[in-house]
Amino acid sequence: MDNKDSEAEIHPLKTEDVKPQENHENSVERRIVSKQSSRLSRLSRWRTAAFFISLFLCLIIVFAFSFIIPCPERPVSERTWFRNYDNAAAYQFLAIEDVNEDKVQDVLFAFKASNGSSSFNRSCLDEGLPSPCAFIAAVSGTNGRALWERPAAEEVEWMECGIKQLGGAEAPGCLVVGKPVSLTAVDLRTGERAAE
């Protein structure tokens, strides 16, 4: 310790030079470290901003698909439904086809009556047939609502539905063989007569 004191007495400026030099080196190191830390803090701010922007965009997309863009409405299906035709006799024919293109199978059937159901108010006389006559009907598979009905013949001998391009139509149809001899093609979608 005496050596240090004596040297300090001999060279008083030398020890003072060493301390500022050390302080200068420390301050340079601090500046370098502070520049690096400021770069890192800027980088972390950008990363944080990018994270929150992407999170915000994801939430907007989820919100748009959840609430703003509507889902297609599907018809509400009833588990059971009942349809009554007064004073009618059923033929032994039943077909299942998608008549109204709602991706639910609908029911096609034939019955004999003097008038159709109250939904359509069609009679055999409208088609020039004697009363009672055979009607073809299509009802919705979701709720039993009548889609269409039409008088087809005096009697139904045979009937086939789901025939593609029947009578040149794009939609499938039903072919009805009636008695006395008649051949009728019916459009499956509308129930209108396609050809005879």
TrEMBL record:
Ranges annotated as spanning the membrane: 49-69
Signal peptide from the UniProt entry: none
Compartments, as annotated in UniProt: Membrane
Any one Gene Ontology cellular component term annotated for this protein: membrane
InterPro entries cross-referenced by the UniProt entry: Beta-prop_FAM234A_B (IPR055409), FAM234 (IPR045232)
FAM234A/B beta-propeller domain boundaries: 81-192
Entry membrane topology: Single-pass membrane protein
Key words of the record: Membrane, Transmembrane, Transmembrane helix
Region described as Disordered: 1-30
UniProt-listed PANTHER family: PROTEIN FAM234A (PTHR21419:SF7), PTHR21419
Identification of the protein by name: FAM234A/B beta-propeller domain-containing protein
Organism expressing this protein natively: Spheniscus mendiculus (Galapagos penguin)
